Amino acid sequence: MSVFGRRTRPLVGEVRLRTQIVLLQVVVVALTLGIAFGMFAYVSNERLSGEYGQRALAIARTVASEPMLRDEVYRYSLATLPPGEEMETELTVGPVQRIAGDARERTGALFVVVTDEAGIRLAHPNPKRLGERVSTDPSDALAGDEVVIRERGTLGESVRAKVPVLRPGSTHVVGQVSVGISTTAVRDQLLGDLRRAGLVAGGALLAGVLGSMLLARRWHGLTLGLEPRELAELVREQDAVLHGIGEGVVAADTAWRVTVVNEEARRLLGITGETGCTVDELGLTPRVLEVFRAADGVPVQAAVGERIVVVTARAVRRDGRSLGAVLSARDRTDIESLTRQLDAVRSMSAVLRAQRHEFANRLHLISGLLHTDRAAAAAQYIDDLLGSGPLGAALPGMDAVHDPYLQAFLAAKAAHAREGGVTLRLGPNTWIDGSLAVPVDVTTVLGNLLDNAIEAARTGEPPAVVEVELVQEDSNLYITVADSGSGVPPALADAIFTEGVSTRPDSGLPGGRGIGLALARQIARARGGDIRLASLGGPPANLVADKESDPPPTHPADPGEPAPTRRATPPHTGTTGDAVSGGRAAGDAVSGGRAAGAVGPGAVGPGAVAAGGGVAGRLRGAEFIARMPGVLVRGDVAWAETM
Questions:
Q1: DSSP string covering 152-198, please?
Q2: Minimal CB count within 10 Å: which of 65, 163, 571, 625?
Q3: DSSP 258-304
Q4: pTM over 0.85
Q5: What is the pLDDT of residues 240-252, one digit of tens each?
């Protein structure tokens, strides 16, 4: 036998559970049958005694009702013949003795005795007892009562009935008739009944033994062959393991009823149900529930609230028999946060390396110009450099973004997009004059939106373009990302933010696809914002959200508030397209048209969208709009210390 992978064996002198069950059941069955057999014997004895007593009573009544017998008994009650040899001779050949003898022979009774009113025997099986007084008390019968009693007389113990003999034509008692049936006959009858009952009890005991063996075998299978000591040890170890490990564990039986839920699983998966309910009632997210029911052993990454967990479900089998499934959950929130921070650092280092290489090339050029005495050309070149800057050259319009972290992040994403043949551009109304207070959350949302858009544009028809527009309103950030891809299928419009749902084929990586948008929306909503699909892609009329028909309920400002302060200079002109994009991004489906009036000169209100304007009017693919309140602050922030 093994418990948690190690072999165990019964202790010396320890009786196996199967044997204990058989012995206990046999003892219980035998004890029950013994009690039942004793009760049956007692009841049968009383029943037989009563039956034989009634039989003796019937015989006595018959004999006592004989007219001749009544006449003779009355005659003897009046006679003055003294007891003696003469009386014995007369009684021996008299009609009373003959009537009593005939009745005894016909019925098989032990005796039929007739007495007069003084208790003197007038008939008896033993003629020598004639003329003597009876050995038992005849007073009840002589008083006119019928008596059925069990007594011992001169002929032994018997069940006897005593009936009064009445004078002819009167109710006066002149004698009695006593009929007895030997208890030996009762005992013989009882023994016969008990033998038959014993056979039945033996059969019942045998059936009980067989049933006990089958029950022990069934119990052996239900307990997987574990002994009571092993079961107790298993429970203790299970409790220690389930509540001591750092993973969440949920177990269900073959009917998908929950049998085990540890505290870590409740914390990680937000479980509200109790053991005994079905897995559907446990409170799992749809993605986790799908993984649990699949039970294929594949680790899948899922978002539960603000946590990122990796869940794995496996079917449990023992000896070829299914026992259910077990779901394990590991917290990956900290790891994912560190991964995003590492990606941010890598992006920054990649940009810095590119800048170093670019500056080295420019310094080499300046050095060459100076060494060839072309100071004027070198000065002109330096002026040109000071006017554009490396980041501005890498992504036109970058001067509209004040935060260095966003600058580095967008530059890195632009480089990543160029590697895939995709052009990343900033929308004409992009303007961020604050600094990020929570750079990790912002870049997680922005990065997921950009990654999906770059992939969609890369796999779509050329030219591959992704446009991102960032608009600041006080401390709120509005993000619009559109691509030139094939768009989102209408069938996925309502499920695009659901975990596991993706427009791209499965990559075969652990966890699969369909986590980015779900995670981005959860982060945005956790900060009081949201992400919406503003356009599926295709014709300009294919919009999911419309300002007039579906205004957002979550804009932080009231319609009567003044427009937020923007820079006095117009938006940059380093990108193609018109100012409709900014009005659409800030006004449609997220800010309710409020930011449209605040984007500066040249911005057009949401009414232009209906005429085919906006980002979706220029690019074929999908358009996503995100709102993240309270993520921007005035002044510079040491963002590396906030991650």
A1: EETTEEEEEEEEEEEPTTS--EEEEEEEEEEHHHHHHHHHHHHHHHH
A2: 65
A3: EEEE-HHHHHHHT----TTSBGGGTT--HHHHHHHHH-B---EEEEE
A4: no
A5: 666 667 688 888 9
